[in-house]
Amino acid sequence: MHNDxxxxxxxxxxxxxxxxxxxxxxxxxxxxxDRIIAKSFNYREKTNDPTAHAEIRAIRKACKxxxxxxxxxxxxxxxxxxxxxxxxxxxxxxxxxxxxxxRDSKGGACGSSYNLFEQKGINxxxxxxxxxxxxxxxSIIRDYFKKKRK
Length: 150
What we know:
alpha/beta, 5 helices, 5 strands, globular
């Protein structure tokens, strides 16, 4: 059985693909059991689609593959803490776990900026783990923006 670091490395590979298309390097991988069922990266700039975050694109692929909008028992690995849009989508798919690398103090909705999953009345519990390969996940974003500023 693979561990969280293994799947986060796969998400980092997806994030690196975003760099090749001049997108902010965020990668996501969705896992059911011990098998990757979907993966993706940010693709907002090329599509002019504000919803084309790595998580949303991976969710769409996973739902198509599973033949359902419910992703019960699935885990999502994301290089950066999911925003409110992505966290909401993860919540509604009923995934069991979010595992992310680096915190996002400006827009993270899993505890850094605020925690969507602590809102009253939510009918689904999602387990959250942060800091998996945190330095690698931070550096891919940091390096991307350093190059963009030059």
